[in-house]
Design goal:
This protein is α/β, with parallel strands linked by helices. The chain folds into 4 domains: 6-139, Response regulator (Rossmann fold), CATH 3.40.50; 144-250, PAS domain (Beta-Lactamase), CATH 3.30.450; 271-343; 346-508, Heat Shock Protein 90 (2-Layer Sandwich), CATH 3.30.565.10. 46% of the residues lie in helices and 21% in strands. The chain has helices spanning 14-27, 38-48, 65-76, 89-97, 110-143, 162-168, 172-175, 180-183, 198-205, 252-279, 281-307, 313-341, 353-370, 390-409, 464-474, and strands at 6-10, 30-35, 52-56, 80-84, 102-105, 147-152, 157-160, 185-188, 209-210, 215-218, 224-235, 241-250, 349-351, 374-379, 386-388, 417-424, 429-435, 479-483, 489-496. β3, α3 (65-76) and β4 form a beta-alpha-beta unit. The chain binds adenosine-5'-triphosphate and magnesium ion (MG). Residues 399, 403-404, 407, 436, 438-441, 449, 454-457, 460-466, 489 line the site of adenosine-5'-triphosphate.
């Protein structure tokens, strides 16, 4: 026996009723009421809430046992076991409609009664658990933010949660029974071509599948939503796939957030570039001043060649040519300063990283000289191009070189040497290394230095390396640091090479 139960007995034969009551008490159950009438049984069931009702089918009065059982089932969900001496087809058919939890044919003995009650209690508790778990799933599915659609084995919609109804603009009642492909219309955002119905794919392959990136859902009212989703098969106890479940979510907000993040990172990178340029003003002023001085000298010379008698036109022409060349140089330099300071969205062009490095070098040439640092570079002459943003990559190289200059001027290590190299790394990436003989890195802080606002310098912001890393990662590469022997440190970064790329310029 499962446990003692409270039982209502409905039996119009007094003798039988008393007999059943005694049997139940012997088994250990509690009889909470005995009645001979259908109406009274419904009322007693409501008042006493017994765990089981034993119900005679034939009852005197306006409603018989079957009708009473139906009312009890509807109003109180209490399991009913029928007791009857009749097992004719018509009675059984009517009784079955009342969904009884058992059927006892009179006369029955105590063990039959015991078994029928145990079975009914067990079945009732199993059904209750099932209902509870269904309610749990229904509540979960209707309260989660993800959209859920399930289908049968033919990929026809069987269920949609409220989020799925909202995103597709299909009410579940209209969608149920339709092919999923009709309700869940998806296209590739870039090619604009329809994407295979994921449920069909799940059912075909019997595995969990995810959608490719850039999938958009076309809603019933024609709107387009970027989505992210996956599908999984529903497998029954025998291992057969009986349908598919599709889970997806609206990526609109996520896209907007990503875009906002990208914009603010760009802004930040530019702000840091401007600070860097602030640090380089001495160097920049020197770079502009040099050609200006040369222009001045050549202009005076030119005037002299022209004012003597007879004027020396050949010398004057040469001086004028040098003026043109130096103006060009100053002009180019100013153009690159403006590019660094400019606010523009990143470009993706095929470029020669060696040229990028050399242009960055121009900015800090005099800074190197000022700190008595020698420079050595080994730029590989046949590098493939990389795809990226010229200004951003230049910013990375500049930041790394400035850090090196700062590390060397902070220490007493001699000689002060900055080494630059570019080469292929063996897995199709261009590898750039910047090595110095500075104060070196604390091995315990090697990861921290890339975090925003980590700085060991009195007036450092600590954004340089963090910006560099996000730029390099956005280019599909990596940036890392390692200590140098006997002193100093090396920073390396990679950028994927263009596979059909042209060779870079040679220089060394
Ligand atoms: N070449 C290097 N040698 C030794 N330590 C370095 C080197 N480059 C970076 N570091 C360490 O990493 C820290 C973070 O560098 P990062 O460039 O991010 O910031 P910062 O140079 O301190 O300030 P800023 O934002 O002005 O660049 C530095 O403060 C320094 O401790
Ligand atoms: Mg720095």
């Amino acid at each position: 026996m499962i446990s003692p139960a409270t039982i209502l007995v409905v039996e119009d034969d007094r003798v039988v009723a008393r007999d059943i009551q005694q049997q139940l008490t012997r088994i250990g159950h509690t009889v909470v009421g005995v009645t001979a009438h259908g109406e009274a049984s419904v009322q007693l069931a409501q008042e006493q809430s017994p765990e089981i009702v034993l119900m005679d089918i034939r009852l005197e009065g306006p409603i018989d046992g079957i009708a009473a059982a139906e009312q009890i089932r509807e109003r109180c969900k209490i399991p009913v076991i029928f007791l009857t001496a009749y097992s004719d087809d018509e009675t059984v058919r009517r009784a079955t409609r009342a969904e009884p939890f058992g059927y006892l044919l009179k006369p029955f003995d105590e063990s039959e009664l015991r078994t029928a009650i145990d079975m009914a209690l067990y079945k009732h508790s199993a059904e209750r658990k099932l209902r509870e778990s269904e309610r749990l799933y229904a509540t979960t599915l209707s309260s989660i933010g993800d959209a859920v659609i399930s289908t049968d084995s033919q990929a026809r919609v069987t269920f949609m949660n409220p989020t799925a109804e909202m995103l597709t603009a299909w009410p579940m009642k209209d969608a149920v029974g339709r092919p999923l492909a009709e309700v869940f219309r998806i296209i590739n955002e870039e090619t604009r071509k329809p994407v295979e119905d994921p449920a069909a794919k799940v059912l075909r392959l019997d595995v969990v599948v995810g959608l490719a990136n850039h999938t958009a859902l076309i809603t019933r009212d024609g709107r387009e939503l970027p989505i992210d989703d996956c599908g999984a098969p529903i497998i029954d106890d025998s291992g057969k796939t009986t349908g598919a479940v599709l889970v997806f979510r609206d990526m609109t907000q996520r896209r907007q957030a990503d875009e906002a993040l990208r914009k603010s990172q760009e802004e930040l990178a530019r702000a840091v570039r401007l600070t860097t340029m602030g640090e380089l003003t001495v160097s920049i002023a020197h770079e502009v001043n040099q050609p200006l001085m040369a222009i001045m000298t050549n202009a005076s010379a030119c005037l002299q060649w022209l004012t003597i008698a007879p004027p020396d036109l050949t010398e004057a022409t040469d001086a004028a040519k040098r003026i043109v060349r130096d103006s060009q140089r100053a002009g180019d330099f100013i153009k690159s300063i403006r590019a660094l300071a400019r606010k523009s969205s990143p470009e993706n062009i095929s470029l020669d990283i060696n040229v990028t490095i050399q242009e960055a070098l121009i900015f800090i040439r005099s800074e190197l000289r000022r700190h008595a640092i020698t420079i050595e570079h080994h730029l590989s002459s046949n590098l493939p191009h990389v795809v990226g943003d010229q200004v951003q990559l230049q910013q990375v190289v500049l930041n790394l070189m400035i850090n090196s200059i700062e590390a060397m001027s902070a220490g007493k290590n001699q000689p002060r040497m900055l080494q630059l190299s570019s080469e292929m790394d063996g897995i199709g990436d261009v590898l750039i290394s910047i090595s110095d003989t500075g104060i070196g890195l604390d091995p315990t802080k090697i990861d921290q230095i890339f975090e925003p606002f980590f700085s060991t310098k009195p007036d450092g912001i600590g954004m340089g390396l963090s910006i560099c890393r996000s730029i390099i990662e956005a280019h599909g590469g990596r940036l890392w640091a390692s200590p140098n022997l006997p002193n100093g440190s090396t920073f390396r970064f990679t950028v994927p090479a263009v596979t059909d790329g042209t060779s870079g310029e040679s220089s060394a």
